[in-house]
Amino acid sequence: MEKLGEKQWYVVNTYSGHENKVKNNLEKRIESMNMQDYIHQVLVAEEEVPVLKDGIPTGDTKVKNTYPGYVFVEMIMSDEAWYVVRNTPGVTGFVGSSGKGTKPFPVPKEQIDTVLKKAGIVNKDMYLDYVIGTEVKVLRGPLQGSSGMIESVDSEKGTVIVSATFFGRVHKIELSFQDVEKA
Question: What is the CATH class of 124-182?
Fold first, then answer.
């Protein structure tokens, strides 16, 4: 086996609608082929969304796949790990690889952080990019789509206080860290 490198996120193409099946197949292969040191997480980016009937929320929610046809894999790129992932049933290839034996490029940190936050996965490293004065866009809730400026960050509670203007006045509002992204 090769020397262990840095773990990074990669995007794997799958048949649309087969993302969870690919995730389960890959997790079984990781276990059976003893690849836990190389392949760390397998993620199907899903989020809960309200169920609408005639445009009106019913109070129920459903799970929606945010990126149909894609599975995200956090791994240390090695020949063995690359082989295990690309030869998993249902995997059609890696995003960022032209095929013909070329290894793919990892997903840039700022892009994967957005995916992870939408899926409800937040790690302490993400907070480093969000400091007082950072302009953010609200992703969910009554202020969805509006912009504001971070006033404070509480990584222990997983919240940010954002100063946003609505109805012609500046308001400070506490939001979940998952509900904002850099503008």
Answer: mainly beta
